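Shipment paperwork, digital attachment
Item: protein structure file
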Amino acid sequence: MGRSQSMTKDEKDLDSMDEKDLEALAEDGKRRPLTGGVALLVGALAVIWTLYTIYSTIFGVLNVLVYRGIHLTFALALGFVLFPPSKKLAGHKIAYAIDLLLALTSVALGIYVLNSAGSFADRIGIPNRADFIFGAIAVVLILELTRRVVGKSMTIVAGVFLVYALFGRHLPSFLAHPGVDVKMLTSTLLISLEGIFGVALGVSANLLLIFIVVAQFLVGTGTGQFIMDLSSSLIGWARGGPAKIAIISSGLFGSISGSAVANVLSTGAVTIPMMKKLGYKPHFAGAVEAAASTGGQIMPPVMGAAAFVMAEVLGVPYAKVCVSAALPAILYYVALLIMVDLEAARTQLRGIPKENLVPVKKTLKEGWFYIIPLVILIYLIMTGSSPQRAGVITIAASIIINLLNWKNRLSLKQYLHMLKEGSLGCILIAMACATAGIIMGCVNLTGLGPNFSGILVSLASGNQLALLLLTMVASIILGMALPTLICYMILAVLIAPALVSMGVEPMAAHLFVLYFGVISFVTPPVALAAYAGAAIANANAMKTGWTAAKIATCMFVLPFMFVYNPELILIHGLSWSVLPIIITSVIGTTAICMAIQGYAFTPIRHWPVRVILFLAGISLIYPGMYTDLLGIACFALIVGANYRFKQKDRVVLSE
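Attachment content:
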């Protein structure tokens, strides 16, 4: 009887929600439905948070700890109000009251940080009782909200590191450490810049919120739709056109959104039905979109959150990360286009009839101005402007262009909605970054980083390839359980130094780790981007995941390319010496794609030939004249022979 009454009450709560609340609830599937004054207050605080961040970007930050403390306070307080402990408790009054209490506790934590931040540095190593109490409160609040918005897996990983820090003295000698007192652990995590308020939360506060808002404005003011329209006009008519539209539009859109799943849900809502309508199998349509959307995290100018952290960890300008990531990202999308083209040729997938497409000239004439904010963003980043300042200027440019566009001018209410959704979308990122700070704090306090790197080098027996393969496996496994940002941060501390110690360029080592963290979005059994594509396509999730992994195969190969050929990430800048490497990389990528698809002008009927073709592609990865010549020779012989088979088949058919 009690359960029935509870369900009735929940239904009444849902019935009382207005359309805007229902839309917000649908955006992430986790938010608590809010109405009336509470919804208005949450929206107002979210807008204030965004405006405060923009203001701080323009006029500067007085105290790093205070700024990051305010960022964390907003995230925690809004997070506990918006995200219930579970879906079943979304409308439960007692759970709601407890969450309000947690939100107020978060505000109290923020006030303590604001009042005490100036003296934190003096108390490192000699914390007081209040530091210990509020440190413990901070850890509990962060882990609980992380469980709600990010997931259990990340909370468990952080818990393991905390247990390791406290009880490391009881572990085997190769992992053992003297142990950290609980008072010293929690207080250090709070008052040190190597804990909760470390690099990760700094990136969230300084950069990520701004760029989430940038993505909101670029999409909201029409740039995202223009990218879709232009992609359709340019290539929609070609063989496999709809799939190629998905690849190009998702690559361009993903470069500004930086989120694989969000990219699938936005561009995939258009491209997947388009592919299905023209005869593409549902699982293939979902897989193409997932593979293309996943590449957005490695495609400049925005990439994913981990790229901003990478710049901080390496101590280089963000523009340098963008430059280094550009060629491999382009190669990845070239590989996707080749894979789709081969699939289209093999299964005779057609393009969109030209009469159903808007001509390129008309598309550009009617919407060329939509691309101006994106061009401004790229120009500012590449010319040395700070990413956050470039982001604020891009937001301003989007507003100005929209105000001049009388056909699609947004209202003040719509602008406020984008500001609100920008900050609310940052709650997940802020929690992931704060939890990453807890993990990194434990690593620093215990000295795990250098020890773990030494263990890996020993396991690899000094062999660079063996270490790269170990890193690949570790990255994929961690990427399945954790967001890309956290996966990267853990591996950047634990494994990247081992790669560097064995002669890998630092930028190549960190990009290597990032790539294999990203690939988990299309690697079953987790494959979140693939499952999002499967949901839209109404296809089997696992089948979509394996197909996406097949289409994205070159992402498994590219990291080895730039590790063995650092010129591919423009370590020494762009010069003519890079051209031969690009050519051999493209040929190698094409060979691998043909081997995987089993098609080169005609089907490749014998599997040994496919194996030879695959090995030819691999040989083009390893730098050296002889390996390149061997790879090119095998590629030319096999592809040339298949071309002749196709010509013979045509002659037979004509007779």
